[in-house]
Amino acid sequence: MVIRSLRPDHVGLELCARRFRRLFPMGLAAFAALPEDSQKQLAARLAYGKEQLEAASVAHELGLHVALCDRDVRVTEARFLSRLPPEALLAGSCAALGLSRAAAIAATLNRAQGEHGSAAAEVEQALEEAVKACVLDERDLLLGARLRCLPGRLVLGVVGSNHIDGVTRQWNKVLTSGGEVQAFSQKPHLPVWRRLLGSPLLWRLRGTFG
Question: Which InterPro entries does the annotation name (predicted)?
Answer without folding.
Answer: TraB_PrgY-like (IPR046345)
